Input
Amino acid sequence: MDASSSSYMQLTNIYGVPVKTALIGNVDNGTQTLDVSSLVPGTYFLIFNNGAIVFREEIIKQ
Output
């Protein structure tokens, strides 16, 4: 992680349309939550961006 870069998380639906975005700022302890309780069941993709570092993860909400 790049502590000097602002970070954000974005959740997209299966079509790539953003459904939730959270600006995290500088990551201090490596822990962040994103409330998905209002989303309908389905497949989503979580994108975590920290400067040049990008993680993508498939999320299935039942």
